């Protein structure tokens, strides 16, 4: 009797709990079915409601358009940086030389003429071309200025055969040097290498076989020179930082001025014309002047 009597309250408590739980589940299922039915109806009616609201409400139209624009920008944003890099890598062809401050040949000649007379008068010593390389090699860190002789190797006249040593070059290692060459009449091409400073001014490169001036590394200034009739480029700089100003660079068979990817060139107040290739090509800036 005691055992049976103790089990009766347990059953009485369990049944109401089960019923309450079942009622809750039925309510939840009813709510879910109602929500599904409502969502289904809204899904089928949404396009019509959207079109109706889009036509009726101007603010709603603007919001939708702005939202679509934001979505499109979000989707294409990963491509924007790629497109920009591709744009920067594009070569820009320019006919006019206004961006590099070009001048007429008459103005350039006026700035060049007569300078060497004054420079030679003030020079302690004048050098021949064959002395340049050894003088540079023996230079210390202080600046040395070499002034060319007046009567050495005059520039060839058009139609007259060039000297037999025209294929020779003057090779200079300017590493740790500070060198200035003034008033030379070059018949040999100049090849400069090394991380130093080089300035070449008021000189003539006429009828040189190959590139008149090749610059590899270093920095400096190439100014108020006449560079004409080279077998290749007038100035060929594959690296370094160079200011090229006040020169007459014309009628060379290849480029007037070429700057490689490692060369940073600043051009101003030059006359550059009549060259067989492009007048100027600067690879680091992707700029070509025809």
What this model shows, in words?
The protein is of the alpha/beta class and 290 residues long. It is 37% helix and 29% strand. It has helices at residues 2-56, 58-88, 105-112, 115-121, 132-137, and strands spanning 92-94, 126-127, 143-148, 169-173, 178-182, 185-186, 189-193, 197-201, 204-206, 213-216, 219-223, 226-228, 235-245, 248-250, 257-268, 271-273, 280-282, 287-289. Strands 1, 2, 3, 4, 5, 7, 8, 10, 11, 13, 15, 17 and 18 form a 13-stranded mixed β-sheet that branches. A five-stranded parallel β-sheet has the order 6-9-12-14-16. The N and C termini lie far apart (117 Å).
Count of individual beta strands: 18
Global structural class: alpha/beta
Distance between the termini: 117 Å
Proportion of residues in extended strands: 25-35%
Secondary structure: helix percent: 25-40%
Approximate shape: elongated
Detail the poorly predicted runs.
Answer: 1-12, 162-167
Order of helices and strands: HHEHHEHEEEEEEEEEEEEEEEE
The number of helices is: 5
Q: Key features?
A:
single chain, 290 residues, alpha/beta, 13-stranded mixed sheet, five-stranded parallel sheet, 5 helices, 18 strands, disordered N terminus
Brief overview, please?
With 290 residues, the chain is an alpha/beta fold. It has helices at 2-56, 58-88, 105-112, 115-121, 132-137; strands spanning 92-94, 126-127, 143-148, 169-173, 178-182, 185-186, 189-193, 197-201, 204-206, 213-216, 219-223, 226-228, 235-245, 248-250, 257-268, 271-273, 280-282, 287-289. Strands 1, 2, 3, 4, 5, 7, 8, 10, 11, 13, 15, 17 and 18 form a 13-stranded mixed β-sheet that branches. It has a five-stranded parallel β-sheet with strand order 6-9-12-14-16.
């Amino acid at each position: 009797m005691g055992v049976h009597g103790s089990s009766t309250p347990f059953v009485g408590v369990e049944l109401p709990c089960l019923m309450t739980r079942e009622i809750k589940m039925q309510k939840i299922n009813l709510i879910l079915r109602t929500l599904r039915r409502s969502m289904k109806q809204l899904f089928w009616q949404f396009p019509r409601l959207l079109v109706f609201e889009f036509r009726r409400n101007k603010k709603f139209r603007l919001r939708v358009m702005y939202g679509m624009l934001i979505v499109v920008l979000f989707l294409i944003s990963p491509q924007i940086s790629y497109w920009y890099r591709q744009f920067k890598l594009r070569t820009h062809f320019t006919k006019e030389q206004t961006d590099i401050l070009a001048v007429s040949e008459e103005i350039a000649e006026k700035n060049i003429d007569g300078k060497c007379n004054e420079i030679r008068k003030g020079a302690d010593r004048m050098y021949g071309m064959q002395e340049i390389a050894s003088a540079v090699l023996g230079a210390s860190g202080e600046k040395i200025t070499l002034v060319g002789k007046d009567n050495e190797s005059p520039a060839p006249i058009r139609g007259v055969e060039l000297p037999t040593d025209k294929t020779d070059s003057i090779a200079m290692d300017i590493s740790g040097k500070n060198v200035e060459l003034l008033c030379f009449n070059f018949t040999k091409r100049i090849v400069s290498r090394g991380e130093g400073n080089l300035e070449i001014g008021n000189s003539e490169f006429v009828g040189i076989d190959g590139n008149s001036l090749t610059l590899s590394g270093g920095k400096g200034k190439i100014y108020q020179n006449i560079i004409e009739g080279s077998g290749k480029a007038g100035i060929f700089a594959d690296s370094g930082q160079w200011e090229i100003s006040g020169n007459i660079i014309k009628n060379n068979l290849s480029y007037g001025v070429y700057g490689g990817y490692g060369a940073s060139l600043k051009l101003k107040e030059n006359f550059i014309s009549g060259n067989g290739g492009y007048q100027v090509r600067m690879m680091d800036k992707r700029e070509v002047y025809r």
